[in-house]
Description:
Blueprint: H1 3-14, E1 23-27, H2 31-35, H3 39-64, H4 78-95, E2 99-103, E3 106-111, E4 117-122, E5 128-132, H5 135-139, E6 142-155, E7 158-170, H6 172-184
Antiparallel strand pairs: 1-2, 2-3, 3-4, 5-6, 6-7
Helix pairs in contact: 3-4
Amino acid sequence: MNPVKERLFLSDFDHIKARNETILWIGSPQFIPYLFRGFWTSLFSIAFAVLWIVMSNTLASSVERNGLNWSYLQYFGYLPLIQVAYGILHKILSFSKTCYVYSTDGIMMRTGIFGSHFLAISYDKLADIQVEASILERLFNTGTIRFHSGKINDDEGHLTKLYDDWTALENPYEVFKQIKQLAFEGKKPLTQ
């Protein structure tokens, strides 16, 4: 990471870290893998939108002969395109503020577009840590570290773990090993 950028990020974390807490590592995502995370979902949305618009235009032209106007149906096809455009714009604008940190007490993340959103999780709250790398992330020697701190989504009785992700992180396996060592250092196993 650029030393100037690192000093700027560190000064931001000084406001939220504990007095005796020491920041051990700071990193930020790489742009291309960060931007294209979730690409397949976006591609599906774009394909659906194009199909919807083509089919609604075909339907509108065939029904128009019968005196009905169904051309407004095509506008519903633009909704997925707007959603994809918003996602891409959000990633582009938040990229420069996204930063990941691990310290002696826990992990922290900063992101945001105009303001800053900070997330801090102490090591004793971490229930699960995972590392993964998609095909695109492997091409850029990046990956994603996922942290589960006990947050659960309850969808009508179907429980799903919610993870906080460090996306498009350079050398993710090395960072993962360091965090895992810090997180589970001194913890006793639940069963003996």
